[in-house]
Amino acid sequence: SSGINAEYGRLGPSKRKKKKKKSQPQPDVAMTTESMSANRKTGSVYDIWGDDNQKQDQKELDPCLPPPVQPPAIYKTSDTKISAVELPHPGTSYNPTFTDHQDLLQTALEVEEKREKEKAKATRDAAPPIQITEEDYIKEMSIGLNQAESEGGSESESETEANEGEECRKSVTVRKTRVQRNREKAEKLKMEEAAALRENKQYLHQINRIKAIKKEIRKEEKKMETKTSARQEKKAINETRPGKYGPGKFMGSEPDFLLPEEVSSSLRKLVTPANNLQDRFTSLQKRNMLEVRKKVMPHRKYKLKHVEKWRKKLPEEIDELVKMKRKKKKIKLSE
User: Fold this and answer.
1) Cβ-based neighbour number of residue 263 at 10 Å
2) This prediction's pTM
3) Which of 128, 156, 192, 318 has the fewest beta carbons closer than 10 A?
4) Residue 269 pLDDT more than 60?
C-alpha cells in the first residue's frame, strides 16, 4: 500500500477515518405502554412499531386522478350572526297584545315616513334652477367696486406715510440714561412678581375647587362610557348588517302588519299577507348567501327598423318605380 501511495505523491497508509453512526434516541417504554393501554380500552386499531402522532395518509380511490381539494377552515363559517329563521315581531300574532300591536304599527309608520322624506328630497333636488339674466349678473358683480377703489387709495397713502415715519425713526438712535435703565429694571421686576402672584393664586384656586374638578372628571367619564356603548352598539349592528357583494343594495322587506279592524281573535280567520318563498329568498340575501340583483326585464339593444315591402305598396306606385328604372337603363345604354 505504501508503494501505491508513493506513486500518487503520498507515503504511508491512508489517514481516512470511518464515520461513526449516530445512535438514534430510543422511544420511552412508559409512553408506549400508556398509549397501548389507552388504545386497548377504546378498542381502536394502532400500529405497534409506528409513532402515535404520525397521521396516516388517506387512501386514494384512483391513483390516476388528482388528490381531492381540501377546503380552508373558514369555508363553512358564516360572516353574519343572523339566525336562519328569525323570530317575527310579537305584534304579528293572530291575537297580539295592545302594546305589541302598537309597536308594530309605529315601526311601519317610521318606514313610511322615511320613504316620503326620500321622495320629497328627490322632487326638491329635481326642481328647475333659477334663471338669472345678464343685467342681474352685471349688477351683482359691480356692487362695491367704486367703494373698494376709494378705500384702496386711502389705505395705500396711509401705508406710505407710516413707512416714511418708521425710516426716519430708525435713522436717529438715542442713547438711554442710567435713570431710564434703572426704571426699566424696576418695571421688569414688578412684572415678574405680579406673574408669580398670579400663578400662586391660580394654584390656590385649583386646590379650593377640587370638588368641582372631580365633578368634571365624572362628567367626562360618563361621556366616554356613552361613546363606548354607542360604538359597541354600532359594531353589533354592523355584524348583523348584510354585506354588499354585488352592484345591488339590500333593501329588506317591509314589516307585515294588520290594522286593528283586520285583527281576528281566531287563527282560522287570520289573513296572511306574507309569502314564505319570498321570506326565504330575502333571508338568504340578508345572510350573504345570495347576491342582491335587480330584475332585468326583456329589452332590445337597438330599435326595430320598419321597411315597407313591394307587396304592401299600391299598384300605381309600383308602375312609377318600374318606369323610373327603365329610364335609367336606357340612359346607361345610350352612353
Assistant:
1) 17
2) 0.43
3) 128
4) yes
